[in-house]
């Protein structure tokens, strides 16, 4: 479905105008596993760190966890410039990469980073009931897997349903191609197994906003995977699933996607406030 991103420009600008008056701080390379785990594994110690950018002169702010892309084989943590100065904390996460480890270890790391956020964001002034999980490409896949397959966060003592919203950018909804590759499955052989977000569709999941590039310009069948995800979530009774296709943009569609992310967060926060 085609949606004009200009529809959200006014909301995006208005929501950020007051937030620009806030002061922000950044803490870098915080280890999100505990000390004993870090000491036992040099790659975890090196790679499993996060950065947090947050408003330091306010309280009870929302947080966006952002997982970078790179096919589960590359990439590094980032705090997207387009999300700064909006009144939110932003957490950029590094995770272990294939082929140095099995690709599914990235899902473990993503869950550990989300758990760290739930357990620590209040120390920075944030509200643990307002944690949103997002990311691009492989990062969108990690957001979906940790938010839909509850076992990953259960291992960390967190209920995935406490996530305030899932907002993946061009996330793979079938089994990730790197996981398929390491199991000898060709890139163009679609697979839906336990490592596919589609396998874990459920009606009680957090609000879900799926954003992709143009179906004719996207990587492989990325739009169609997300469209099928949206359809199955709705058929199961999930009432807060939306899908946006960014007309004219390919796989690198993050910049036009960021206003949609901010708008969705503000919508959910307003809805939460109304229910209080």
Task: Give an account of the 3D structure.
- The two termini are 33 Å apart.
- This protein has helices at 9-17, 35-40, 42-47, 105-120, 138-148, 151-154, 177-182, 222-235, 254-275; strands at residues 24-31, 49-55, 61-67, 89-93, 126-136, 165-169, 208-213, 241-246.
- Strands 1-2-4-3-5-6-7-8 form an eight-stranded mixed beta sheet, with helices on both faces.
- The chain is α/β, with parallel strands linked by helices and 276 residues long.
- It is globular.
- Helix 8 (222-235) links the parallel strand 7 (208-213) and strand 8.
Summary of the model, kept short:
The chain is of the alpha/beta class and 276 residues long. It has helices spanning 9-17, 35-40, 42-47, 105-120, 138-148, 151-154, 177-182, 222-235, 254-275; strands at residues 24-31, 49-55, 61-67, 89-93, 126-136, 165-169, 208-213, 241-246. The longest helix has 22 residues, at 254-275.
Number of strands: 8
**Strand order within the widest sheet?**
1-2-4-3-5-6-7-8
N-to-C series of helices and strands? HEHHEEEHEHHEHEHEH
User: What structural class should be given to the helix and strand makeup?
Assistant: alpha/beta
Defining key terms:
276 residues; alpha/beta; 8-stranded mixed β-sheet; 9 helices; 34% helix; globular
Helices and strands in order:
Elements: H1 9-17, E1 24-31, H2 35-40, H3 42-47, E2 49-55, E3 61-67, E4 89-93, H4 105-120, E5 126-136, H5 138-148, H6 151-154, E6 165-169, H7 177-182, E7 208-213, H8 222-235, E8 241-246, H9 254-275
Parallel strand pairs: 3-4, 3-5, 5-6, 6-7, 7-8
Antiparallel strand pairs: 1-2, 2-4
């Amino acid at each position: 479905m085609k949606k004009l991103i200009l529809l959200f420009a006014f909301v995006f600008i208005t929501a950020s105008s007051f937030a620009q008056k806030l002061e922000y701080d950044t803490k870098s390379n915080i280890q999100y596993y505990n000390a004993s785990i870090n000491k036992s594994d040099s790659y975890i110690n090196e790679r499993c760190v996060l950065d947090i950018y947050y408003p330091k002169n306010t309280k009870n702010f929302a947080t966006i966890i952002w997982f970078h892309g790179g096919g589960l084989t590359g990439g590094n943590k980032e705090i997207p410039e387009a999300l700064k100065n909006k009144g939110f904390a932003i957490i950029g996460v590094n995770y272990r990469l294939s082929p140095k480890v099995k690709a599914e270890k990235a899902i473990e790391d993503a869950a550990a980073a989300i758990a760290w956020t739930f357990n620590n964001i209040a120390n920075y002034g944030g509200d643990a009931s307002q944690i949103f999980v997002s990311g691009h490409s492989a990062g969108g896949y990690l957001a979906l897997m940790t938010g839909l397959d509850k076992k990953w966060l259960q291992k960390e003592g967190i209920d995935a349903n406490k996530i305030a919203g899932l907002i993946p950018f061009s996330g793979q909804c079938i089994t990730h191609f790197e996981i398929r590759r390491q199991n000898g499955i060709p890139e163009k052989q679609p697979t839906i197994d336990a490592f596919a977000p589609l396998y874990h569709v459920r009606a009680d999941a957090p609000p879900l906003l799926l954003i992709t590039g143009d179906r004719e310009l996207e990587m492989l069948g990325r739009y169609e995977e997300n469209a099928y995800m949206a359809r199955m979530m709705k058929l199961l009774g999930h009432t807060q699933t939306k899908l946006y296709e960014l007309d004219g943009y390919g796989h690198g569609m993050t910049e036009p996607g960021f206003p949609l992310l901010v708008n969705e967060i503000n919508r959910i926060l307003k809805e939460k406030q109304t229910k209080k």
